[in-house]
Amino acid sequence: MNKQQSNQVRIELKQQFPLTIKRIGINGEGVGFFKRKIVFVPGALPGEEVVVEVTKVHPKFTEARVKKIRKASPQRTKAPCPVYEQCGGCQLQHLEYQGQLDAKRDILIQSLERHTKLNLDELDIRPTIGMDNPWHYRNKSQFQVGTQDGKAIAGLYSMNSNKLIDIDECIVQHPLTNKVTTEIIRIINDFKIPVYDEKQKRQIIKTIVTRVGFETGQVQVVLVTTEKKVPQKDLLVQEISKRLPEVVSIVQNINPKKTSLIFGDQTINLQGKDSIKERLDEFTYELSARAFFQLNPIQTSKLYGEAKKAAALTGNEKVVDAYCGVGTIGLWLADGAKEIRGMDVIKEGIDDAKKNAKASRVNHADYYVGSAEDLMPKWKQEGWRPDVVVVDPPRVGCDRKFLDTIKEVKPKRFVYVSCNPSTLAKDIEYLKREYRVEYLQPVDMFPQTAHVEVVAKLTLK
Questions:
Q1: All domains of the chain, ordered by start, with CATH?
Q2: Is the pLDDT of residue 291 over 90?
Q3: Tell me: the pLDDT tens digits for 366-409?
Q4: How far apart are CA 446 and CA 28, in angstroms?
Q5: Annotated binding-site ranges for S-adenosyl-L-methionine
Q6: Which residue spans within 58-150 are E strands per DSSP?
Q7: In the annotation, is 419 catalytic?
């Protein structure tokens, strides 16, 4: 078949064909090729020979589902979660853990292949650092609230759907977050507290966010609502305190918008403290409702340890902790730095960072509300330039202005902690004239999912 004929091959909806799975895709699906066209198959594993049925046809790729497994991977295993296939929160429970770690390194490689022109054979891409026990590791749950058969439920939306899956126990969550969320739903049902306004056709309570300190046992509950007034709110708060003594902070966040963002701009303390405490090694952190903190404390120690290795501090360096949140990474590096400056656009996070530095007796760290792209050039004009910049940005990656600031300020080392290999790869490509990639270290922060965290060490050429 010539090239022109192969381009004319059409794949039809509901068409069935055999497929050999080559690798795991960035969303955890199996990847194969049919008539030179890429096919994504959720639930299929590398090395498997399957028969698939086409579910969606796109111009550049096809989606399909497994009809039959002719040859199963030796790493295929039975997923222990009863709602695994409906929920969509995890993607890899059916793959043995070592296979997950190998797949995550390959997901990083795929991102570099797609978004950079680097010679990957020359790159030091290290094996993924995993967990001894890859279950019950998440310290925070964000369960959506809905109704089913006249009762309130809490859970996650099914993959590519608006169907809410009722979840009593999520086996990747810390047991306390499960217990607290389930009990709050029980309180809502016991006292018939409405979560949906039938007249207005509008959600009242949208989300229950529960965060636990692994080391302290303290729990914070955030009730995300569409408006300030919630029917029987005082009774709800009273019952949470009565039934759940481990809950030391109850907060309301108001988000009236229809958006994928959980939190709105207004936060009100309903009972107890504004924050909870968490410890990582010798550091204690104050965590307010909207402050960012890593979701897997056990792996966070390993992740920040890798960031510290990459920073290669000798005691004489000035360090910028960009997108610093509550100051976690900066404090982790503090004993090897001459001076730390951190910044974030969320004021509550900076307030927490200052408290955390004081609690850890770190006197050479200062924190600022603002963006790195505004503050760093200003400091450069004042004669202050960092030797090392550490950044842990959101999934969208670094702001282009921030990367331009890195090019302008030229720190000797740039340590990039990424939760999205695709945006990491794009940002590395943008910086490649000025910075060389020393190595990339994947860390598994979210076992059973397709997510992978990466510490990239970049040095000035």
A1: 3-75 (2.40.50.140), 140-276 (2.40.50.1070), 296-460 (3.40.50.150)
A2: no
A3: 999 999 999 999 999 999 999 999 999 988 999 999 999 999 99
A4: 12
A5: 294, 323, 344, 392
A6: 61-71, 140-148
A7: yes
